[in-house]
Write a structure and sequence with these properties.
Elements lengths: L1 E7 L3 H12 L4 E5 L11 E2 L14 H4 L8 H5 L1 H17 L4 E3 L5 E4 L5 E4 L1 E3 L4 E2 L9 E6 L8 H10 L3 E6 L3 H4 L10 H7 L3 H11 L8 E5 L8 H10 L3 E4 L6 H16 L3 E4 L3 E7 L2 E7 L8 E7 L10 E2 L4 E2 L7 E2 L22 E2 L6 E4 L2 E8 L9 H4 L2 H19 L1
Parallel strand pairs: 1-2, 1-16, 2-13, 9-10, 9-11, 11-12, 16-22
Antiparallel strand pairs: 3-7, 4-7, 5-6, 5-8, 14-15, 17-18, 19-20, 21-22
Length: about 425
Amino acid sequence: MKFDTIIIGGGLAGLVCGIRLQEGGHKCAMVSTGQSALHFSSGSFDLLATLPDGTPVEHPLEAMSRLESPHPYARIGADNIARYDREFPEMMKRAGIGLTGSATRNHYHFTPMGTMKKTWLTLDEFVTFDEPSRLPWHRVVLVNFPGFLDFYTKFIADEFEKAGVSCTPVQVTLPFIEKLRSNPTEMRSANIARTFDSTGHIDELLRELKPHCGEADAVVMPAVFGLSSPAPLEYLKEQLGKPLCPLATMPPSVPGIRMQQQLTKHFVHLGGTFMLGDTVDRADIENNEVKAVYTTNHADIRLTADHYILATGSFFSRGIIARPDSVYEPIFDLDVFYDTDRSKWYDADVFAPQRYMTFGVMTTDSFRALRKGVELTNLHAVGSVLSGHNALHEGCGGGVSIMSALHVADSLLNDK
């Protein structure tokens, strides 16, 4: 099977790159093992919250000039990042996903624990704030369902109280949700969301909920509405009669799953081939060029392309794998940056920047992957598999995935 581009990995970086290429006229195939980190998303994309030296960042675009290669942003360039900041939300809108935010200034968004995080873009179904200490409410009702343990009302209530907002926790008992409690593994956000696909069930929720909302300025609830479509959440907001502040739950994340599904459907709608539940096992490489890849499901059938893009993620998705004394990339045996002294991989202080988070595949400035010190001419790497950044410490994970994916896609389209 022959394509213009084969993308290995179906997470955020792979999907953004694939959609950009399909929109530009490439014929793409995407090989995806299964769930991606989007299923753990809290509904926002970070660009840059902290510089590597720990300096807080309020204006990401202004701070880009202080980053140096091999940081992916330094290689992409501030001008390109400013352009992608304008273009990416429009691309997401074409996929049916609305976002709010700008790279000129970070805003704040609730985490599943009720704390505030600094971020770049947030799904427009969530509430955002310019300042973490200035909430627009005096009294809120905090709603949960009995037995739902992925939404920590006590922690969330404490955070609201710290911000000067009176918080009244309420548990709403509904028969169709009580049925899920017969099996504790069924009481998860995605399964609850499926019950609310029916507007009748949302009406039942409203009847139980409204008596508790009399003097409240807003209602805070777990984001368990709209697994396949935003329609159930929109209906709830219309009928509630109060501002609704949905909070993403601990994983699995309903907004994240829906975003993964919408991006995948949009990629396929544009003509892309999506190979779900498959894994690239090995590749043929000759004269520093990838000639073909082989997957588990296709056995000895060669998948060939003019270009290949590695978007397999970091340790979490086994894009890179740690041995006791080394770190390696399992498909192409690419060069990986890591510290040869294992004692330097981590800090005993769990809240300190962890050095292993900077480990990843080494590339040229144009994101061509390196193998034994030599670039592979038709293999690029994008997203969290890249070295040179600390996604957790710097608050840049989503941004690196998006910006590197767009940058590489544009370079291939310009070459074509």
